[in-house]
Amino acid sequence: MKKYVLLFLSLYSFSFIGKAQPPNYDDLTILYADGKFEKLIEECLKYNEKESTSKDPLPYLLLSKAYYGMSQKGDRGPEYKNAFKDAVSALGKFIKKDKTQSLIGENEEYIEMLKMAAAENVINEYEGKNYKKVSGAVSSYLKASPDNLGAKFLDGATKYMLNDKSTATAVWRDAEKAFLAMKDLGTTSEADVRIYKTGVLATAECLIKSKQTDRARALLKKAQDLIQEEDFKKQCNALL
Questions:
Q1: Single pTM value for the model
Q2: Which of 46, 56, 108, 151 has its CA 20 to 30 A from that of 237?
């Protein structure tokens, strides 16, 4: 009899485990609502490291928001000096994990805000001729928007301005081939479009400097076909 009781308990326990629901992450949402970003980072990382929850997108989203929150604090510790980059990196992981894109749809405003901030960082560094910082900023942006060829064009232009012309040529070759074959940008994100415009214009300028006017013209023509903005068209035409 004892043997059957033990068997029943074993089967009951197995059935309960099999029906266990994934966590709802109330603990994380409460920490976020309370603005306890350091504790939130700690708890999100625990979930991300657990095999049972490592594929869930929500902890990555809240991790991104927590890092962004820390990046806005003037009195943050040195361990959070790269909090903004960490926020963008976590956002990229969240986007990959959200296979149904349901959370992406619910958080479009935050995603676009963070991408725009990252895009402005890239553009400001390039326009300020801080070329050694541009590559890092581009790499950060690509984590949130990995298919953005504009960022790759900008990376190539940066390499060119640093006199690493062989690397610039290699980066441009792959990006240019894919860009010229595009039927549309594949994005409506304002941040992505800004990066595309800046990257194309920067690359065209470099190509013209290196006496590759035909390549620059083809690139600018394609960009104007894809980005129907009068101001952008004027910028393109001014280069030729």
A1: 0.86
A2: 151
